Structure formats: C-alpha cells, structure tokens
UniProtKB/TrEMBL annotation:
Record's protein name: Arylmalonate decarboxylase
Membrane spanning residue stretches: none
Domain of life where this protein originates: Bacteria
Entries under InterPro entries matching the protein: Iso_Racemase_Enz_sf (IPR053714), MaiA/AMDase (IPR026286)
Length: 250
C-alpha cells in the first residue's frame, strides 16, 4: 500500500515514553501510518497526579491532531485508564470518539478487546509498575470480569520503572517466576506501554503456547481491526500473527 493512502493511526503518548512509537511502528509494518501527540510535561506532580491530569487533559491533547484525518486513535497510557473502572474507561473513549469523529480506545481497552476476542478469561499479570499501580491494574481486570491468577512484579535493577526494564531483565524475571503450563483460557499480559516487550516476547514465546498480550501489541491489533486490516497475513509481524490465530479461532 502506498504511504500516502495507508490508513492513519493517531497515538497519544506520555512525554518520556520511548517505547510506543518504535513498537507500534514495527508491529504495523507500514500497514498504517502512525502519528503521535504527547501529553503535557507536568513538573512537580507525582505519578498518580500526572495520571489523573492525563485523563483531564485528554480531550484537548487529542485535539492536537488538528485536521489530520485519522482512522483510529489509541491512548497509549494504561496507567491513567487503570484509575477508571473499565466501564468508565469505555464511556470516556466513546465520548472522545463522538467528539473527534474517530474511533478512540485506550490501551487498556484494546487489551480487554483482544482478550475477549481470544476467549481469554484469566490473566497472569507481568507488571513493572510501583505496587500501588500494579494493584490498580489487577483491580481493573477483575472489574472487567477477568480472573488475575498471578502477578509477577518486574524490576529494573532494584526499582520499579517500566521505562528502564531491559529485555534481559524482563526475560530473566519472567522465566524465574516459573509460570504455570499452557491453558486455552489464560493469557500472559505484560502491562505498560513504556516497557519494551517485543524482543522479550519473541524469546519467551518459545516457552509457552499461551496467548501473549502487551499494551502496544493489543493496541496495534485493535487499530488494524478497526481500520479493517487483517492482522494475520504472512507479511504481518510474527507476534500479531500469533495473536490473530487465537482471535480468529475464538
């Protein structure tokens, strides 16, 4: 498909997040043109205050795309939407969709859509977040009707920092957790749009046949589906093809 005629995906990104654009760009593999706007920098606010503010300023931030015609838009910040209930998240995204004339979904909402399409009702949660945000994430999934069977807390060195987790750290800590065997109704969810996951999933995927979900993978899957593009073609990214096999079967 010619670049000028490819569907357009708009992505809203936190200021210091370095993972979203390269991961979604690699996953879309030129099937969509990816355009981004960033949430404002909020000096002096702690993490929770920043996440709360992101929800408040989201309508105006989406307006930063101006007259650019989009085919789908993703809010690539799971943490801010974990502050909402799943129902509240969907209401907010529906309101934004109507206001901006484009389908809008949060990364959390995209994960939930992918999980349901794959017939998943149980999660093993891999989280690089601070404990309070990990608990908030688990509560969001439980409120959505999913059972969180286990939580694996991932550290970057000696601290919780999704932006700083290396591929080696992620692979080693997940393998050390000795995850349970394969189950058709269970997915391993790597939460956090700012944690680089693609290289780790390529390696960890050899250890398990379970559904593997990440914030950026699910967001890309949802965007392609929304734009009417298949995710399971031979030219698609291997992780998308793997997910598409389960969602088609479901």
């Amino acid at each position: 498909m010619a670049l000028h005629s490819a569907p357009r995906l708009g992505v809203v990104v936190p200021p210091a997040n370095a993972a979203v654009e390269p991961e979604i760009g690699e996953l879309t593999n030129s099937a969509m043109n990816v355009h981004t706007v960033r949430f404002p920098v909020l000096p002096g606010k702690d993490l929770r205050e920043r996440l709360e503010t992101y929800n408040e300023v989201l309508p105006g931030t989406l307006s930063g795309f101006g007259d650019l015609r989009l085919d789908a838009a993703v809010v690539a910040c799971t943490g801010s939407h974990y502050l909402l209930t799943p129902a509240g998240d969907r209401v907010l995204c529906d309101e934004l969709s109507q206001r901006h004339g484009v389908p809008v979904r949060s990364a959390a909402g995209a994960i939930l859509a992918a999980a349901r399409a794959a017939g998943v009702d149980r999660l093993v949660l891999i989280s690089p977040y601070q404990p309070w945000l990990t608990e908030l994430s688990a509560r969001y999934w439980q409120q959505a009707g999913l059972t969180v069977e286990r939580v694996v807390k991932v550290r970057a060195g000696d601290r919780f920092s999704p932006y700083d987790v290396t591929t080696e750290e992620l692979v080693a800590q997940v393998r050390a957790a000795d995850l349970p065997g394969d189950s058709d109704d269970t997915a391993v969810l790597f939460t956090g749009t700012g944690m680089f996951t693609l290289a780790a999933l390529a390696e960890l995927g050899r250890d398990t046949g379970q559904v593997l979900l990440t914030s950026n993978l699910a967001s890309t899957w949802w965007a392609l589906d929304t734009a009417g593009l298949p995710a399971g073609t031979p030219a698609a990214h291997p992780l998308l093809r793997r997910l598409a096999e389960r969602t088609v079967a479901a």
